[in-house]
Amino acid sequence: MAAASAIPSPLLEQPQTQTQTQTQTKSDDPKITIQQILDIVNNLHTTVNKSQDADGASTIRTARSAGLELAHATLTPVLDKLLSLQVPDKKSEGREDHHISMLQRNLRLLKEDVVKLQDLRSEVAEEVWKHIRPLQGLLSKVVKGEEKSSKTQLTNGMKKDLEVINKKIFNLMCQVPLLPNKPKKHGVSDYDDGDKINTGKGIVFLHGIHATEEELKKRAVYRYVLRELEKLGGEEKIYLLSFAVFPENQEVNRTMLMYWWIGEGVLPVDGAESKVKRVLERFMEKQLIEPVENKRKVEANSYKMNPFVHSSLVLMAKEIGLFNMYNHPKTQPKMNKSKLYKVCLVEDSSSQQEAKAKRMPAVDIETVFNVSERFPDFAFKWFSEDQTSGRKNTFGKPVYKMLKVFYLGRWERTANRHIEVENPELMKYLKHMTKLKLLSFQGISRIERLDDAVCKLRELIILDLRACYNLEKLPDKIDSLKALIYLDITDCYMIDRMPKRLSWLDSLEVLKGFVVSDADEETVCTLVELRHLKKLRKLTITINKGGFTVLDLFMAIKDFVKLEKLKVAWGGINKRPENKDKDKNKDKDKVLGGGKKKEQKDKATAAGDNTKKQDGFLKRTASKFFDKEKVVEKPELPKTLKKLDLQCFPDAVLPEWLEPRRLVHLEKLYIKGGTELTGFGVLPENPTGCNVSVLRLKFLPKVKVEWRDLSKKYFPKLEFLEKYQCPQVSLCPTDGIGIWRKPE
């Protein structure tokens, strides 16, 4: 291939300094161009670190992480052939030059790969050449900053520029195959192209990449993923490899991952939420996963994986025997029990021979995870009393002590996949799963009640019943679940009462879907009784009880000593059918000329209803005068509360304890729906002590406030605002979808 003549680089407008790199010349050899970029980045690294070291910061040390064995098994002999790679040690995490070190590493990897890309070097050289001038300009800005100040730092804009370039370099590295070593095969035209995506029904990963194991292992991205995997600890290896289970290009929710890893026993319950977040952030830094961007969220809570990375992990998970469902690129995924006793249910698993209990010995199964099956109830039969493979306890009953995760429900956040249990009676076999930690029926229909067998699961930590639309009742003896920490019954619309013993779950920290109803308080658990749950951190409530006021709500929760997040939805109790009929009659009377009289009558009725609603408050107030020994209690927000989400707010004004000036501990406030709400109380003359930084306002047609007062007087520490269908919240500098973020 003829070499192109050198093209002089355009000179920068800024004057050159001694520390600035010399003017670059374009080369047709990508190795030279990459080295030029690497020189600039190294210079940038030195310049930034110079000022940080002067302030006492430790210099970056590089070392190769020692390889650790995976749980129960090692990878293949490929591990012994890993190339050396310098990476920042843990002490350098969080420093200003993190983006620089990442760019240095990826450039070194790319330089190793392009040595073998002679046939494509002109194309690669043209692509990487585009990044020369932006990096020269960035270096020039940093050098100028060093001349003006003794301390040099990367601005947020510079970091974003480095992230963009870093991502482009990484994507380029992933897309370049090792052509000189790729043999041409005859008769395999549909599967030998590493960049083609097979869109056949039921195939859920890039078969072009994974056509053969040998072809995949030759790719640069496979070697990169293998290197990064080797550096992780044993538990973190399992975290990363678990992404191999999900179909390609799917969004995976952080909470679901946390539940799964806790169930597997690889994630400690204490501090689980913060640790999962840190782990996923580390994976993002290494570009193994990427966040699913959503402008309406302050931060991402769902993640996706590059198809090349995903295919690499699929092969690695199969080689160590962790998961085994993708057997061949031309066949659909198949349900198998892996060497490490994990079973993944996939579409049409119920029709496989292995679905029969006699073909799937369950004595050593540790995990059953539903990836894409719509009729998963056959899995119950594996753990029935009839299975001779089950180990007998002293009473002659089979027990399955190995099983820790029984995830039959939906892991997706969307309801696109319909899941159905045809025979709910099979749930009686739950009583044999004595060591179960995670049980999920999320999104499964036709489950009307939980069998009492679930109360035998004394070691259950997570019970996920979200969106079980037919579920009508929780077990009365739910307090038998002594180890239960997470209980989610969100969107179980048929449940209208809570079992009395719910407040006896001493370990419960997260309760989602609690219902306040008109049921007899002697037979159901009331909201105020939840104060006995001393560890409760998160609570979501649906109020379906007439006359249950905002005052009643906050009087009930005032003694919750550890509550951090509260979500409350009034379930349309102010719009009952009888009230709608009254409104219709009212309009009719107005048309007939009797509107005025009828209107006066309605006002009197409304006043009576309001008096009735405030009856509890009046009684407490009256006690001040009739019983001097009693002190009138006042509602207040728990001091530990950081997030408050109010939906369908029923009143016209915020009570005193919810006015912004009183929110000295709250960080996030959401008010979503409130047709009568008019504002946030009396406008303070000076900025208040409100600590709210995230505010969401939706469907508030009567709330009237200007941006100046909203951001300067009511919420002076505001950093994020979402405004949707609030026509009288005016002059806000929001974007086209109603989002405003404080400029950095």
UniProtKB/TrEMBL annotation:
Entry annotated with the keyword Endoplasmic reticulum: no
Keywords: Coiled coil, Plant defense, Repeat
Keyword Ribonucleoprotein included in the entry's annotation: no
One Pfam family cited in the UniProt record for this chain: LRR_14
InterPro entries from the UniProt entry: LRR_dom_sf, LRR_R13L4/SHOC2-like, WH-like_DNA-bd_sf
Domain Disease resistance R13L4/SHOC-2-like LRR span(s) in chain numbering: 420-571
GO biological process, one term: defense response
Coiled coil regions in record: 100-127
Region Disordered: start-end pairs: 1-29, 577-612
Low complexity bias (residue ranges): 16-25
PANTHER family given in the database record: DISEASE RESISTANCE RPP13-LIKE PROTEIN 4 (PTHR47186:SF54), LEUCINE-RICH REPEAT-CONTAINING PROTEIN 57 (PTHR47186)
Protein name as it appears in the record: Uncharacterized protein LOC108825336
UniProt gene name: LOC108825336
